[in-house]
Amino acid sequence: MLISSLTPVASEPERARALADLFAADAGALDAGGHFPHDHIAALRRAGLLALTVPVRFGGAGRGLAVAAEVIREIGRGDPSTGLVLVMQYAQLATLHRGRWPAALVARVATGAAERGELVNALRVEPDLGTPLRGGLPATTARRGEGGWHLSGRKIYSTGSEGLSWGIVWARTDEETPRVGQFLVPFSAEGVRIERSWDTLGLRSSSSHDVIFEDVALPAEYAADLRRPEEWAGQGGDASAWIGLLIAALYTGVAEAGRDWIAGFLTARVPANLGKPLAELPRMQEALGAIEERIAVNRRLIGSAAAEVDAGHPPAASETGLIKHVATENAIAAVEGAVRLAGNHAIARRNPLERHLRDVLCGRIHSPQEDTALITAGRAVLGL
To answer: Which stretches make up the Acyl-CoA oxidase/dehydrogenase middle domain (predicted)?
Structure first.
């Protein structure tokens, strides 16, 4: 994949825009085969975009959420599976140094991303637990061993699994009074195994497979952040803003891809009984305007909230959840609007709009899901 046209002078969103155009060319083939986008990740590495949110002191670009959201929206327009891997990378690397991790561990992960383009993601969801946001203790267990810990368990929906260098694994200890928290796991460690289980409607090349940990030996210091379960209640406004707004930006990018395709279709389509392009019909112009309305609202919502985060005043987690929910529904409605305009052409596998529809529907699955976002907001209003 050629990126010779991407000069260091170009801004990160400009670099992302150029890459997105390239990624779009083979996103369909990757989707059809469910293949991890190794070439896309390599291109992002060469373009200096994998360490976008790594603090400058660790060798990264140190960019804030507003720039990161623009980059994610562009990459989501080209290949949302690649974009989802990048969402997780950016969110983790932007917030690690603000938590309770030992400084040496933060430096290890951050410099790995900056110097070698290493990928990292948090692995939290389990077959029985579901998402930890809904409560419960993980079945993945760390037991004390000679010189450290031994980790065993299974994580599902582990985005980017086939490209990860590090996993931040949510687990419980085997102590009499269990603690719960994050263990840093190198994916090169003995006992880490990927089970290629990801076979879904959309985001098929995101490599969100199961990861199995079989008695993985970890140094004592790799227990990055352990707390009593009750100490994990709620997620800070900053952390929830990063993941929520980047997810919103990702699916806004998918909606833009759908808009661009239908605009091209309406311009090129000249029915014999009409004698002119469909784009010249006011009814089509109005419908396309309704699609653009939803996208424009999303961009304003995400941009303003991201600016607040960068200014040190992140919205409450309940508000971020609402923005993620509204942006997701807007993106889905935008793509569905394009589908209605295209008719049978929209569901033909030879046209990318069919893939955009499958991909954008995945936005509803990411936490916080609709019920959680609305209940949290309602409880906040009620003071509960």
So the answer is: 126-216
Phi, psi at 155, each rounded to 5°: -115, 140
Q: What's the whole-number mean pLDDT along residues 250-275?
A: 96
Q: Which residue has the tokens 């060469």?
A: 46
Q: Which amino acid is at 236?
A: G
How much is the average pLDDT of 348-376? 95
For 250, list phi and psi in degrees, rounded to 5.
Answer: -60, -50
Q: Look-up: residue for tokens 């085997």?
A: 174
Average pLDDT on 358-365 reads 97
| 126-134, long-range: CB < 8 A, 24+ apart | 126/153, 126/154, 126/155, 126/156, 127/154, 127/156, 131/367, 132/170, 132/232, 133/235, 133/367, 133/368, 133/372, 134/372
Domain ranges in the chain are 12-117, 121-231, 237-382
Q: Residue 26: exposed, middle, or buried by beta-carbon count in 10 A (0-12, 13-18, 19+)?
A: middle
- 121-231 maps to which CATH number? 2.40.110.10
Fold of 237-382: Butyryl-CoA Dehydrogenase, subunit A; domain 3 (1.20.140)
Of 186, 193, 182, 98, the residue nearest 140 (C-alpha): 182
Tell me the pLDDT tens digit for each residue of 162-187. Answer: 999 999 999 999 999 999 999 999 99
What does the alpha-carbon distance between residue 229 and residue 219 come to, in Å, rounded to a whole number? Answer: 22
- Is the pLDDT higher at 326 or at 137? 326
Q: Using one digit for the tens of pLDDT, what is the confidence trace for 86-111?
A: 999 999 999 999 889 999 999 999 99
Pairing of strands 164-173, 141-145: parallel
Tell me the two tokens of residue 181. 């928290």
Which residue type is seen at 161?
S
Superfamily of domain 12-117: Acyl-CoA dehydrogenase/oxidase, N-terminal domain (1.10.540.10)
Q: Is 214 helix (H, G, I), strand (E, B) or coil?
A: strand
What is the pTM for the complete model shown? 0.94
φ/ψ (deg, to 5) at 160: 80, 10
Q: Report pLDDT for 232.
A: 84
Query: 354, 335, 156: which is closest to 251 by C-alpha?
Result: 335
